[in-house]
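Re-run with default settings, no changes from the original entry. Doing this only to confirm the output is reproducible before filing.
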Amino acid sequence: MSIIHEALKKAAAEKEPPENSVGSFRYSAKSLYGLSPSVVLFSGIFFLVLFSFLFASLHWKEALFLPLKGISNATPSKAPLERSTPSLTQTALANSSSEINNQKEEGGRALALGLNLYRQGKTVPASEAFNKAIALLPESPVAHNNLGLTLRMLGKENEAMAHYQEAIRLDAGYAEAYNNLAMVYDRRGSVDQAAAHYQKALRFKPEAPEFHLNYATLLERKGDFPQAKKEYQLYLTLESSPQKENVIALVKGRLRELKGL
């Protein structure tokens, strides 16, 4: 054997660790505790897998609920079925709304019937219809004003005034109610109150010719002829109904008489 071969053999022997040396991963046929290398390798893999499983099981809850962190106070959205199913309160409101609509429709029919009867001169049935309309539509200024008209025609002026005043309370700009109330004051001789209400009627509806006519006759009785002539003239300017030809003729005659004063 050559010197080179002996040197290589000796170097190889020095590199090989002693059997069962601590910290080495190499084992000879006589391995740890007399077990074969394959058994030792399988056991190591088994315990490594077992340790990994135990470590993961300790943290599975945190891993599972990690996406929920930071949104615990968020309001969960309702399912579409829950949104589309009306609650008891919603159903009650819907029924209430339907009842209110039916009541309004019935009140409107009673009001229309009263107007039709009033135009026919049927004052008593018209009054009954308006009373029904008010029972169904207590906040209707029109129903109160129209009932006042029929009550005045029946000679119940105090009741008529109460309904005119209620109509004005419900609608502060209701010109017709001011005019009708002024006519009652005028009839009773309360000239100043009548004048004040005629003026309010004209303020809210200056284009109404009958308001100017009523106010003109009151001014003439008060002796305010210049202002009465202006109101008569405004009436003639605004009135265009062929059915009022007789009234127009009378107003023109009054104007001619007032010019001589």
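Residues 1-5, 11-33, 58-85 have pLDDT under 50 and may be disordered. The radius of gyration is 52 Å.
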